[in-house]
Amino acid sequence: MIRERLARVPGALSIAQGGVLVPLKNIHLPVDGDSRMHTVDLSRPNAAEVNLLLPHALRNRLEDYLAGIRHHAKLVAAGVVIPHRLIMDGPPGTGKTQTARSIAGQLDLPLLTVRCDTLISSLLGQTSRNLRRVFEYAQEFPCVLFLDELDAMATARGSERDVGELQRVVISLLQNIDALPVDTILVAATNHGQLLDYAIWRRFSYRLSMPLPDSQLRQILWKHFLGEYLPEIIDLEDIARRSEGLSGATIEQVCQDAKRTAVLKGETVVDETELFRRLGLTLAFEQPKAVGSTDGEIRWLRAWYPKLFTHRVLAAAYGISQRQVRNAIEGEQHGDTGDKQSQ
Ligand SMILES: Nc1ncnc2c1ncn2[C@@H]1O[C@H](COP(=O)(O)OP(=O)(O)OP(=O)(O)O)[C@@H](O)[C@H]1O
Ligand SMILES: [Mg+2]
Prior knowledge:
This protein is α/β, with parallel strands linked by helices. The protein has two domains: 2-209, Rossmann fold, CATH 3.40.50; 215-342, no CATH class. Helix content is 50%, strand content 8%. It contains 17 helices and six strands. The protein has helices at 2-8, 11-14, 56-70, 72-77, 96-107, 116-119, 124-138, 151-154, 163-179, 198-202, 215-226, 236-242, 248-264, 272-285, 294-304, 311-318, 322-333, and strands spanning 40-43, 85-89, 111-114, 144-147, 185-190, 206-209. Strands 1-3-4-5-2-6 form a six-stranded mixed beta sheet, sandwiched between helices. The radius of gyration is 24 Å and the shape is elongated. It binds adenosine-5'-triphosphate and magnesium ion. Adenosine-5'-triphosphate (ATP) binds at residues 51-54, 92-98, 189, 191, 248-249, 252.
């Protein structure tokens, strides 16, 4: 009863940091028998603070899931019981963890996040016991049980470890899910849905595929993450087009970098060129040819977006003369790759 009371304490009282993953004190979270580390994090995400930007169709699916939870009693009375189990699949940084936080926030329930890294204890024999403890704990008070990075657990079968033991981990996971009451709210996320055991997929009645953001959503993400630092004149369509293939998390990172530069320079909005420069360099990281020097950066930016990165703009951005810019660009033609670090 005390645990339940504590879990219901308003977030502001129990966690100074708001919705950050911080274990609540005074509650005995399950620990790994071996390392004594907590196998779960308990947090209280605040719905107003969790910004989740999803395409329309995904938002509807999520609303559907939440409606099923909110109207549980009515559905039970009508004999339509769908367990509140949702699995999300998608590339890194597409907002899966954020969605779990948003679900807990909107339902005003604590979020119990299972840390699969700790859970997959080095002693595998321990894992099944850890898993049972976590699932039992989740039933002690109303909460959202969130199995993050589920693939760590579920794809373990393909690894080099003892196959028999890992088989038991998966079976134990399935058994634990099956033993949950239908009204337990279970959310799972994975980056490698295709590697997940079908038996695990089958246990989740709601499935959300979280894709990389499309051009329209990228525009919204750029605008959102730049916030009040958004330059007055900026071609959002252009930046959305040029950031194709990036996740929401990467767009956020680029915005943070550009905002930091603005703050340190005492400016109130980000500089558009600096924003594109950050974006260009982020994209360069994904190219096979590393951009390991200033000359390399200049050459890359010039080739990536020649219309914006003229000699003059590049000279200003790097605080060098236009002649130096020209030398950097022409350096390549003379066989100097400029990537001294990669040599
Ligand atoms: N659709 C989105 N709406 C709002 N924020 C987003 C979105 N996608 C990504 N982000 C931002 O990116 C950060 C990382 O997202 P999140 O941790 O939810 O990704 P993930 O899908 O769980 O990634 P991983 O698979 O690597 O764990 C979030 O903190 C959030 O700020
Ligand atoms: Mg995540």
